[in-house]
Every structure is written in structure tokens, then in C-alpha cells.
Amino acid sequence: MTKVTIYTTSICPCCHAAKRLLHSEGIAFHEVPLDGERKLRRRLARTHAGWRTVPMVFIGERFVGGLSELRELHTRGGLRPLLEVG
Asked: How far is CA 30 from CA 49, 50, 66, 76, in A?
């Protein structure tokens, strides 16, 4: 199964919702807290078209987006196939 990484902050309700969605689907993920990590957050924004909000969800090396994009991917049945590619 392809590795899922989610960049979060502790106070972000969308981050909590994204993690709940992944948990509910039985999808293991690696969480990277961005609280106080300004340099990492800036680097992520530079390398992903200026994306500054959290959560930032990656499946393998592919940047999926945030909560809305993750939900949309799941709703249209595209999440599981991405996990099985790796």
C-alpha cells in the first residue's frame, strides 16, 4: 500500500476531520505536525503551488490537497486506487 502522509496543526478542525476520514477507512498514515515549523511550512508552500493551508495530504509523492480534495477523492472512489498503485 502506498504511504499516506498528512501535514497538520494541532488546532486545525480540518486536520482532525481528514484524520478521522482516513481512520474510518482503515488507512494508516504518517502525521507530520507543523506547529512551530515555519521553515518546513514555507518549503511545502514553495514546492506545492503556494498551498499554505492544512491539512496537506500526500499519497506517495503525489500531493492530493486538503480536506475538501481528500473528501472528493474518496467520494468519487479515487482514494483506494491511489493507495494500491505503490
From this structure: 22, 22, 15, 24
